[in-house]
Amino acid sequence: MTTTVAEPVDTTGSAVRAQALGKRYRAKWALRDCSFELPAGKVAALVGANGAGKTTLMSVLAGLLPADEGSAGTSGRVAFVSQEKPVYRHFTAAEMLRLGARLNVVWDADRAERWLERFEVPLDRACGKLSGGQQAQVAFALAVGARPDVLMLDEPLANLDPLARREVTAELLAEVAETGMTVLLSTHVVAELGGVADHLLLLAHGRLLAGGDLDELLTRHVSYAGPASETPPVLGKVVEARHRGTQSTFLVELPEGRPRPVVAGPWVQRPVTLEDYVLAQLAATRKGLDA
Ligand SMILES: Nc1ncnc2c1ncn2[C@@H]1O[C@H](COP(=O)(O)OP(=O)(O)OP(=O)(O)O)[C@@H](O)[C@H]1O
């Protein structure tokens, strides 16, 4: 089934909470020592390389997989749209919505129908004859129709054309603004998260490498470009260093609670985008420099 709705667990204030969460498949840990909290009403992006543990984390949070250590909880009702976004092939989109109405404790038919209309999904065609993107829209319609407090979407943007990606994220933001729900979405399309996500969870090899408010995280990271050098012109943790010919570039995590240092020429500093940050972190873990 496309959407799973789980019943509430106490999270003492936050919308989603994980405490030293771990999950293994046989002897191999897919998730380890994962602790974080998501405040309500946030859109959190869950990013990480293939196999980092994103689907496993969402499945445990949604209650589909049992944790092997630690604990997790979500406040209110949770809807989870899995990566495959399976729909019953012989059911039409309209029949899927009728099924949603019967399976969910809370059901907002208008909301679900509006979603399908918005994305021009034919209501009377068997889901098996819809495109991959249209099938995903049926899955999203079912999820928003269930009026969850926490909506988890595993790679919602895969299968969607660029315009649909932009429109789906805009619709999700509108849902968040209107209902106050919390969204946790995993994605590889990091470049399109700007202006969408306000919280980040970055997984590497099953461990949480970074997490927190996106603005705070990006404010603490700065890129410096200057003459070839072994070290950056400021104190801090070097997340990424690149040396090309006579130029060096450093992405630096500045120490917490200190004013941003002023650098003198020839060094030039520039702000770090979410994509810069995530790619630098992923590159570092791939090279075995971290985690
Ligand atoms: N059912 C399973 N049985 C055994 N190992 C599994 C199973 N599901 C996932 N794994 C392993 O657990 C690790 C995490 O997988 P997971 O699917 O959670 O990663 P992911 O970050 O969602 O990856 P992707 O971006 O490729 O979807 C991987 O090493 C994967 O091979």
Shape: elongated
Show unreliable segments. 1-8
Mind describing the biggest β-sheet?
Answer: 7 strands, mixed
What is the number of E strands? 14
Output the radius of gyration: 21 Å
Brief characterization of the structure:
Helix content is 27%, strand content 31%. By secondary structure, it is of the alpha/beta class.
List keywords for this structure.
27% helix; 291 residues; disordered N terminus; four-stranded antiparallel β-sheet; 7 helices; Rossmann fold; seven-stranded mixed β-sheet; 2 domains; alpha/beta
Task: Annotate the secondary structure layout.
Elements: E1 3-6, E2 16-25, E3 28-38, E4 43-48, H1 54-61, E5 69-74, E6 78-81, H2 93-103, H3 109-118, H4 132-145, E7 150-154, H5 162-179, E8 182-186, E9 199-204, E10 207-213, H6 214-219, E11 221-227, E12 237-244, E13 247-253, E14 268-271, H7 274-286
Parallel strand pairs: 4-8, 4-9, 6-7, 7-8
Antiparallel strand pairs: 1-6, 2-3, 2-5, 9-10, 11-13, 11-14, 12-13
Helix pairs in contact: 2-3, 2-4, 3-4
The structure holds adenosine-5'-triphosphate (ATP).
What does this structure look like?
The protein has 291 residues and is of the alpha/beta class. It has two domains: 3-212, Rossmann fold (3-Layer(aba) Sandwich); 220-286, no CATH class. The protein is built from seven helices and 14 strands. Strands 1-6-7-8-4-9-10 form a seven-stranded mixed beta sheet, sandwiched between helices. The protein has a four-stranded antiparallel beta sheet with strand order 12-13-11-14. β2 (16-25) and β3 form a beta hairpin. α2 (93-103) runs antiparallel to α3. The longest helix has 18 residues, at 162-179. The radius of gyration is 21 Å and the shape is elongated. Adenosine-5'-triphosphate is lined by residues 25, 30, 48, 50-56. Residues 25, 30, 48, 50-56 line the site of adenosine-5'-triphosphate. It holds the Pfam family ABC_tran. GO terms for molecular function: ATP binding; ATP hydrolysis activity. This is ABC-type transporter. Keywords: ATP-binding, Nucleotide-binding, Transport. Residues 16-230 form the ABC transporter domain.
